[in-house]
């Protein structure tokens, strides 16, 4: 059985539990341990797949097609943990399973209740996370969404309390993450909300072993550390100061300096090798001192929400590290280009342009106008999912001369459905979990930019969309617009277009999948890396 670390949050929401969990995962891996990562989310949606990005930020997708919380993106970028359908569980998912069991009569006539039936299901899911993993992980890190004191979090915290008394004391460790407000007039960090939050946790029967204190721009003083330790009944060395850090990849180094990994391993009674963080440290230093800088515009729809395209933002940063470049990313709402404003006015200052994924009609025409600017002005371009579809529609309208070409998502009656639904999607009524989801094989055509970028003939990339490139237009787009389909997924004697390119352009690449989900700071995603390389060349040519 693995050891378990539970990460809870107090005082405010968005306190950064996801990055704490991911950072600890990295530190434990650096000590030679194998980790598993999991997020428990208290909301009633079965998964976040049906939620608006304004509500919930990005939906992160796993290889096996789970639509999950964006904290799994942090786990992916910081650790080697394998993320699957089992890695993210919501209240809705738990209730769904319990109600189905009840309908099948599996509770043998009993009254089905939160305790023990809901809490048993939660404990089962936690155990299931590592049950079939080969080799078995040494430590499972389980993050509990929400804030201690929320009604919704209670069953999860109760399940953890029970879990802790079912195993040995040295099998679990609880980390509580809180916020310490800084009062300017007093010149000090206030510990009272943390004390109250720990008390609320103790009321539920959970005593934290470690407290991680978010302190904003100031560092926790020794006397403040002692005070929290004393009032919260936690050892002094287990009170960790978590200042805001940029880049976020420096956060694990700050925790390591305060020996968070050794403290946790001490609680869990695990012997581990000395840490090896040299490569990670080198990467963080490189981010701080880049040789070049360039500007990229990301044109999308949910641009006012910080986390709506989280993985894209991070993947561009990783590509920057690989090219020794600071990528200054600016978000642009595509609706801006739907009025009289010419995209050239708003976009001329950028060295590369990315068109974001998205759903629904709003802002689409602005993206198509952006595409025309990108193609005609030979600006390096990466189009992701909807971004690739926009590129195809623009070519069909402005090069093939089909003015009403569209995706049937935006105009079901279009005479030229260059992007359309596969027959298997036509009858779908349920919105949740029914898109083309997860990793699909993509065969790359020899000699194309995509094949050169990957340095491989076959890759697997993750999808999340319903609509597809319509092969009926492929030949015309190839012959008349110079389009190259450089990646395809073969199936049922036919194929789906996964990557498109324009060779007569410095770097023009649209992908039907989401390359951002697999990018890591030490292993940038190849298409992002080459996009930034091309943007740098474009910038240098302009200077
Ligand atoms: N709305 C488009 C589709 O469903 C694109 C989705 C996306 O960009 N993820 O195919």
Give the strand order of the largest sheet, numbering strands 1, 2, ... along the chain: 13-12-14-15-23-22-21-18-19
Number-wise, the strands total 23
CATH class of the largest domain: Alpha Beta
Task: Return the CATH architecture of the largest domain.
Answer: 3-Layer(aba) Sandwich
Largest sheet: 9 strands, mixed
Radius of gyration equals 25 Å
Low-confidence stretches: none
Terminus-to-terminus distance: 59 Å
Share of residues in helices:
25-40%
By CATH, the topology of the largest domain is Rossmann fold
CATH superfamily membership of the largest domain: P-loop containing nucleotide triphosphate hydrolases
Write a concise synopsis of the structure shown:
This protein has 543 residues and is an alpha/beta fold. It is built from 19 helices and 23 strands.
Q: Could you give the topology of this structure?
A:
Layout: E1 3-9, H1 17-30, E2 35-41, H2 53-56, E3 60-61, E4 67-68, H3 71-78, E5 88-90, H4 91-103, H5 114-131, E6 139-144, H6 154-166, E7 172-179, E8 182-183, E9 188-189, H7 192-204, E10 210-214, H8 222-232, E11 239-242, H9 251-257, H10 260-268, H11 278-288, E12 292-300, H12 310-322, E13 325-333, H13 343-347, E14 352-355, H14 364-376, E15 381-384, H15 386-398, E16 406-407, E17 417-421, H16 423-426, E18 436-444, H17 449-454, E19 458-465, E20 467-469, H18 474-481, E21 484-491, E22 494-501, E23 508-511, H19 526-542
Parallel strand pairs: 1-6, 1-7, 2-5, 2-6, 7-10, 10-11, 12-13, 12-14, 14-15, 15-23, 16-17
Antiparallel strand pairs: 3-4, 8-9, 17-20, 18-19, 18-21, 21-22, 22-23
Helix pairs in contact: 1-3, 1-9, 4-5, 5-6, 12-19, 14-15
Bound molecules: glutamine.
